[in-house]
C-alpha cells in the first residue's frame, strides 16, 4: 500500500521523493509520511461504508495513533471525524481546524478541565464510567445539553497482545454491561445530558472479523434496550482495531472486508429487531496510518559476535519506536540506498539507547551495510511518534509529509534547547 518505489535501480523513493535526499535535507532519524497512502486509506473506509451501509455513517480517525496538526488536517479533509483521548489531543484537533461536531472525546479518567474544554468546544463526550457521568451532571449549566455517548464493555475476547485488548470484562474501560439498566435509567433522568449513542472498542491489531461482528450484534441489543428507557439513541460506534500487515505472516482482512462484515451484521440485527438503522461510526487508527509512514535512520556502529549475532546500530531506537520493546512488535526494514543489492546477511537492528532490550528488529534480512547507509523501517505511522519519548534525552526526530515529489516539514526536530525548556534550576542548587 505504501507508495514506495525504487528508482535509479538502487534507491528508495516515497511520494516522489528520494529517501536518502530527504535525510540529507531534514536530518536523521526522520519520519516520512506518505500523504497518498493515508488519503487512500481514509477513502477506502469512507467508500466501504457508503457501499455497504444503507444508513448514515461516519469514520473517525483514532488520533492516538498519531496526533498532530497535519495528520488531523489530512484526515478531516477526507471527511473523517477525529477521536481524541485527552485535552492535548482535543486541543490539537481543534487547532487543526477540525469541526467540533466531528470530534469525540474518549478517556477512562477525564479531568474536570478536560470535560469543561470538551463542553465549551461542543464536542461529543464518550462517557466511560459513573464518576464521569456524575461529574458531567455537576458541571452542567442549567439548560445546557451535553452531547454524550456511553462506552460499554462488551465482554468480547479477541486474540491480540494483552496490553491492547480492551473488550474483555475486566478491562479498565467502559461501563459493565450488567449495569446497563442503572446507566440507562440515570442518563434518561438527566435533562442536561443528551445521550446520542453507544460505543465499544474491543482491542487493536485484530486479524479476525468475527469479534467485531459479535460486537455489532451485541450493540444492536443495547440500542433496542435503550428505547425502553425513552432514550433516543441514534449512533452506534464499533471502535477501531483492524490489524495491519507488519510482516508476511500477518493476514488481516482488507478495510473493505472488515467494514462490510460489520455493516451486514448491524443491518441484519436491526431488521430482526425492527429498529431504524443507527448512524454507524467506527474509529480506526492503525489501519489508517500505519502503512503510510516509514522511519529513516542512519547506520552507525556494528558488532559481530561470531556464530551468534551481528548487531547493526542505528541513530534512534526505543525513543522513536517503543513498540518492539513494549509489545514485542515485529517490523520490516530495507536499506534505502541499496535497494538492488543482494540480501546477504541476517542482522539485529539495535537502537542507540542504554538498554539491552533496545532492539528494533531481530533477524532482519539485509544487504551488506556500512556506516552512513540509510535504514528504513516500514509501517511506522501508528503509535510511533505518538508514543515517542525523550529517553536518554534524545531529541524527538522530525517528520515530513511527502506528495508528488514535494516534502514539507510537519513536526520539527527537537533541539537540545527544547530538551531543557521545561527544566528549572532553583537558585540554591546552582553550582
Ligand atoms: N478507539 C478506541 C477507544 C481505542 O482505545 C483505540 C485504540 C482505537 C479506537 C484505535 O484502535 P486501532 O484501530 O488503532 O487498533 N499502543 C498500542 C495500541 C493501543 C491501542 C489503544 N486504543 C500499539 O502500539 O499497538
Commentary on this structure:
Pyridoxal 5'-phosphate binds at residues 241, 283-286, 383. Residues 38-290 form the Orn/DAP/Arg decarboxylase 2 N-terminal domain. The active site is at 354 (proton donor). This is Diaminopimelate decarboxylase. It is built from 12 helices and 20 strands. Helix 2 (35-52) packs parallel to helix 9 and helix 8 runs parallel beside helix 9 (255-273). By secondary structure, it is of the alpha/beta class. It has 2 domains: 4-34 and 290-419, Beta Barrel (Lyase, Ornithine Decarboxylase, Chain A, domain 1), CATH 2.40.37; 106-283, Alanine racemase (TIM Barrel). The chain has helices spanning 19-26, 35-52, 69-77, 87-95, 112-121, 130-139, 180-188, 210-228, 255-273, 286-289, 323-327, 416-419; strands at residues 4-7, 11-14, 17-18, 30-34, 57-62, 81-84, 103-105, 124-127, 146-151, 193-199, 235-237, 279-282, 293-305, 309-314, 333-335, 345-350, 359-366, 374-378, 398-403, 406-411. Strands 4, 13, 14, 15, 16, 17, 18, 19 and 20 form a 9-stranded mixed beta sheet that branches. Ligand LLP is lined by residues 62, 64-65, 83, 106, 164, 166, 201, 204-205, 239-242, 283-287, 323, 327, 382-383. The site of ligand LLP has 23 residues, from helix 10 and helix 11.
Amino acid at each position: 500500500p505504501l507508495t514506495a518505489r525504487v528508482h535509479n535501480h538502487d534507491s528508495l523513493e516515497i511520494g516522489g521523493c528520494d529517501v536518502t535526499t530527504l535525510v540529507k535535507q531534514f536530518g536523521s532519524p526522520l519520519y516520512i509520511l506518505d500523504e497518498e497512502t493515508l488519503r487512500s486509506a481514509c477513502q477506502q473506509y469512507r467508500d466501504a461504508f457508503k457501499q455497504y451501509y444503507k444508513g448514515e455513517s461516519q469514520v473517525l480517525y483514532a488520533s492516538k495513533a498519531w496526533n498532530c496538526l497535519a495528520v488531523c488536517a489530512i484526515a478531516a479533509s477526507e471527511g473523517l471525524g477525529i477521536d481524541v483521548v485527552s485535552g492535548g489531543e482535543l486541543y490539537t484537533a481543534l487547532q487543526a481546524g477540525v469541526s467540533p461536531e466531528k470530534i469525540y472525546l474518549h478517556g477512562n479518567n477525564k479531568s474536570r478541565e478536560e470535560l469543561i474544554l470538551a463542553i465549551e468546544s461542543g464536542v461529543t463526550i464518550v462517557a466511560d464510567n459513573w464518576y464521569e457521568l456524575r461529574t458531567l451532571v455537576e458541571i452542567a449549566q442549567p439548560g445546557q445539553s451535553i452531547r454524550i455517548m456511553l462506552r460499554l464493555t462488551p465482554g468480547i475476547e479477541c486474540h491480540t497482545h494483552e496490553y491492547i485488548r480492551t473488550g474483555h470484562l475486566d478491562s479498565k474501560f467502559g461501563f459493565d454491561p450488567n449495569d446497563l439498566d442503572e446507566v440507562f435509567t440515570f442518563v434518561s433522568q438527566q435533562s442536561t445530558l443528551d445521550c446520542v449513542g453507544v460505543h465499544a472498542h474491543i482491542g487493536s491489531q485484530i486479524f479476525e472479523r468475527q469479534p467485531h461482528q459479535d460486537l455489532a450484534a451485541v450493540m444492536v441489543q443495547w440500542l433496542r434496550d435503550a428505547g425502553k428507557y425513552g432514550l433516543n439513541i441514534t449512533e452506534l460506534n464499533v471502535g477501531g482495531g483492524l490489524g495491519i500487515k507488519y510482516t508476511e505472516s500477518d493476514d488481516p482482512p482488507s478495510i473493505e472486508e472488515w467494514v462490510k462484515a460489520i455493516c451486514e451484521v448491524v443491518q441484519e440485527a436491526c431488521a430482526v429487531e425492527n429498529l431504524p438503522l443507527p448512524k454507524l461510526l467506527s474509529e480506526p487508527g492503525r489501519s489508517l496510518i500505519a502503512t503510510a509512514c516509514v522511519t529513516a535512520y542512519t547506520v552507525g556502529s556494528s558488532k559481530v559476535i561470531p556464530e551468534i549475532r551481528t548487531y547493526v546500530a542505528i541513530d534512534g531506537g526505543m525513543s522513536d519506536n517503543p513498540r518492539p520493546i513494549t509489545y514485542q512488535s515485529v517490523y520490516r526494514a530495507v536499506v534505502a540506498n541499496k535497494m538492488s543489492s543482494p540480501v546477504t546477511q541476517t542482522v539485529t537492528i539495535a537502537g542507540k539507547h542504554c538498554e539491552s532490550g533496545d532492539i528494533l528488529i531481530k533477524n532482519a534480512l539485509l544487504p551488506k551495510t556500512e556506516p552512513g547507509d540509510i535504514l528504513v523501517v516500514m509501517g511506522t505511522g501508528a503509535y510511533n511518534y505518538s508514543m515517542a519519548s525523550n529517553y536518554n534525552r534524545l531529541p524527538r526526530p522530525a517528520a515530513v509529509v511527502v506528495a508528488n515529489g514535494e516534502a514539507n516539514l510537519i513536526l520539527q526536530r527537537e533541539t537540545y534547547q527544547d530538551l531543557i525548556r521545561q527544566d528549572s534550576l532553583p537558585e540554591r542548587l546552582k553550582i
